[in-house]
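dumping this here so i dont lose it
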């Protein structure tokens, strides 16, 4: 499956947002309570749906069932300006009752249809990747999705520490040692 640049970027941000909500500073799993809090404040977060949709979309986490995965897969290659109307997509998913209430709130907002399409696609990708999205999905969707990523073991001729020190020096910092 090929992702549009829009979903490529947002998928990583969505995953990071869920990871941020996962645990507190002591390592306790508090995802459920943080999601509950986001859901309670959902209407207040509507101004963010255009600028930071991933931060609002997590409120739907665990509340979407996908009845037509093929249609969602097709949407993943689209940029937001090319999205269909929500009415054309609504039958591809089924919301839990609490998530349906959130969807109704979102649909009252300008940009709400686009936000819901973005949300269901992000949740679909998260579920499809078991929460471990690592980069571009290949056409084959193989388990070897990281084959194309450079290995940290590869030598590029320069040590990262030296490169980092060089960069800091260019920014005006004094080199230590």
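and the seq i came up w/
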């Amino acid at each position: 499956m090929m992702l549009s640049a829009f979903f490529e970027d947002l998928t990583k941000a969505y995953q990071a947002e869920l990871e941020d909500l996962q645990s507190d500073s002591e390592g306790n799993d508090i995802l459920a309570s943080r999601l509950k809090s986001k859901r309670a404040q959902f209407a207040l977060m509507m101004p963010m749906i255009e600028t930071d949709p991933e931060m609002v979309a997590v409120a739907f986490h665990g509340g979407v069932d996908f009845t037509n995965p093929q249609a969602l897969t097709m949407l993943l290659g689209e940029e937001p300006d090319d999205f269909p109307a929500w009415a054309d997509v609504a039958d591809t998913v089924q919301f839990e009752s609490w998530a349906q209430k959130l969807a109704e709130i979102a649909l009252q907002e300008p940009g709400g249809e686009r936000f819901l399409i973005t949300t269901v696609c992000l949740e679909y990708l998260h579920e499809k990747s078991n929460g471990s999205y690592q980069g571009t999905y290949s056409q084959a969707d193989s388990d070897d999705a990281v084959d194309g990523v450079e290995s940290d073991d590869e030598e590029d001729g320069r040590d990262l520490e030296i490169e980092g020190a060089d960069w800091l020096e260019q920014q005006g910092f004094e080199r230590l040692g």
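Residues 5-130 form one domain.
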